[in-house]
Amino acid sequence: IYRGLGGYKQYAERSEGAISASKYSGLLGPTRGMSNVRSTMRIEYWAACSGTDGGICKDYKETGYCGFGDSCKFLHDRSDYKSGHVIEKEWEEKQKKIEEKKRKQWEKRAIKKAEAGAGEEESSEAGSSDGSDDENELPEACMNCRNQWGECKSIPVQTVCGHYFCEDCAMSHYARTPKCYTCDAPTHGIFNGCE
C-alpha cells in the first residue's frame, strides 16, 4: 500500500546542513541526466504494416488484452490497414456517388424550370418572344447590395442555383454562411464569373 512520501523510512540521519546543501546543489529529488549523454530507444515492429501481422500482438488484436502488458515485444494495435489501391478505389466510388447525386439534382432543377417556363408561356401573350432570353440574361443590379453592375468594384458571379451577385457580396456572404443569399440553397463554394 502506498502511503505517500511520509511512508518511507529514513535509515540514515541527515543533518540540517546536509539537507539544505542538497537542495541548493540539486541532489535532492530526481537526478538530472547528463548533458553529454543522450539515451534514446527505437522500437521497430517487424512487418507491422504487412498483411502477415508478424509484429502485431495476436492476443491484443483479437481481445484487446495482453498478459505481457507494456513489456510485450509485439505491437499492441487493433486497427485494420487497407492497401493503397483499395483506398483509392473506395475514394473514386465515393466521388462517383457524389457526382451522380449532383447530376440528379441538376436534372430535377432543369425539369422544374422547364415546367415553370412552359406554364408561363401558356399564360403569357403571344407578343412576348424574349422568354427564353430573360432566363439567361444578367439582371440589372446585384441582388444583395442593389448596385448597378457598372458601379460595383468586382465582377458579377452566378451561383449554382442561378442567382447573380457581385463577387464582393458573394464572398462576404459565403464567409458568413455557405448558402445562397436569395434562396438559401447550398452554393458549395461555386461562383461562376459572368461577362
From TrEMBL:
SUPFAM superfamilies: CCCH zinc finger (SSF90229), RING/U-box (SSF57850). GO terms for biological process: snoRNA splicing. The keyword Ribonucleoprotein does not apply. Residues 51-79 form the C3H1-type domain. Pfam families: zf-CCCH. Residues 110-135 are annotated as: Disordered. A zinc finger (C3H1-type) spans 51-79. Residues 142-184 form the RING-type domain. One of its GO terms (molecular function) is zinc ion binding. Keywords: Metal-binding, Zinc, Zinc-finger. InterPro entries: CWC24-like, Znf_CCCH, Znf_CCCH_sf, Znf_RING, Znf_RING/FYVE/PHD, Znf_RING_CS. It comes from the Eukaryota. This is RING-type E3 ubiquitin transferase. The lineage of its organism: Eukaryota, Sar, Alveolata, Dinophyceae, Gonyaulacales.
